[in-house]
Amino acid sequence: MKASIKTIVINLLLPIILFSFTNPVNDDPTKYLNKGKDYFYQKEYIKAIGELTIAISMQKNLGEAYYYRGLSKDLLGKKEGYYNEEFCYDLIKAMHYGYYEAVEQLYKRGQFEAIQLSYLVEHPEKILCIDLADHQLSEFPESFSEMENLISVNINDNNIRVISSDFFDNHPNIIQLNLSQNYLKELPKSLTHQKYLYELNLSYNRLKSLPHQMNEMKQLRVLNLRGNQLHHLDHNVKDLDQLKVLNLSINQFKKIPKVIYLLANLEELDLSGNIIDEKEIKKLKMALPDTHIIY
């Protein structure tokens, strides 16, 4: 295994070293990006990483190059029989530079064992996932501030009543957030700044409304609001055009919010546990024939 890894490192560095001697002054990074993508689809992951690294060295904000390099690193590790979360940092870079396909890939590929609260962390900036479920917390630990690259946070089943706006401002990379089974009555506006958020679980809190700027979370696919005290949804929710799953069960809706009729890409909607006339449900089914509606 050591020899194999050494060979991989040499193969990764070789094209970069050669590039430093042969690169013309005004060469086009797109050429190396396309070569890297070609190697990626040919499953030549080492060569792909080399070409994509050259492209990145020429243009630091080339999100697509980070994206394919991240996927190449992940697949190379699986092919060689080892796991290394380094690929996640490339996908995070891709997100930052506007290549949003990275959000879904990070959600699918970046779900590995989460750090527990008691775990002594030498490099908190390297932590990507953390699980604080059922820790009887009434506030977020101070150590969170040092975990700047978090992508997955589970704070299920605690005693959280208030979330500081600083938490979201300091953790812009979160794609999966579980705040279920707490005592939240309201959410800070800064939550809506989470532009990469893919799955948000706010079930079983005490929410009566949501921030008006929810529509800013353009990557949101799964929104769980089960077991709150909601009776309306803001019209801005219509702009969540990537939303696939919406759970509004066990709330206080007496009528179907009009905005739901505008969620054309919705695949699953749970309205069970609300006092909604069956005629309204039938009308909604006709308007959204491709949506699985639970009531």
Automatic annotation (TrEMBL):
It comes from the Bacteria. Pfam families: LRR_8. SUPFAM superfamilies: L domain-like, TPR-like. PROSITE patterns: LRR. Keywords: Leucine-rich repeat, Repeat, Signal. Coiled coil: none annotated. Residues 1-27 form the signal peptide. This is Leucine-rich repeat domain-containing protein. It comes from Flammeovirga pacifica.
